[in-house]
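#lab-general

N.A. 3:47 PM
ok so I finally got the sequence cleaned up, no stray characters, all 173 residues accounted for. can someone with queue access submit it? mine expired

B.Y. 3:52 PM
send it over

N.A. 3:53 PM
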Amino acid sequence: MADFSDENTKNGQIFLRHQVLTGMQDVVLETWEGSGFNRFEHINYHEEIKRTIRWTVQDLLTSQQLYAAGRIMSHCSGLYVRRCASGDRSIWSLRALGLDASEENQILEHVLTIEVANKKRSVVQSRGRHNLKPLGKKHVVKERSKSNVYLMFLRHTPSIMRVCMDHEGLSHG
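B.Y. 4:20 PM
back already:
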């Protein structure tokens, strides 16, 4: 658990010194309003792993959430702080949780990070670990050695994204 006792304020901005959460020191904590899109949840059964999966898509609303997502997924979501704070863009995290296992054996995977152009109501891009595209082959060998379950989830993201986009009236572009 991150220790927030080392917070201080400089020029009205909170500097959090908790490398555990963000992987970075002296990161300015910025927060912003949500994009106005709803948190999304979809539950279905996946034959490949014989489990019911809860898919969630949620808006990332702080600079720390963006930096943490970037660290977990090995990509640059932390660079979108200004765009998110201005309301121009929102960054979303698509996660999958296997529900059928006992609590200690549940699988929680951060599967995709999604960029949305809020005013256009359009998904600009979605990327998996190491900027892997949902249907792309880039980095598949590297990922295969880490987690076959992750690749299975990644293969199913286009259909989950379609359900989510239809639900929110989003286009792809």
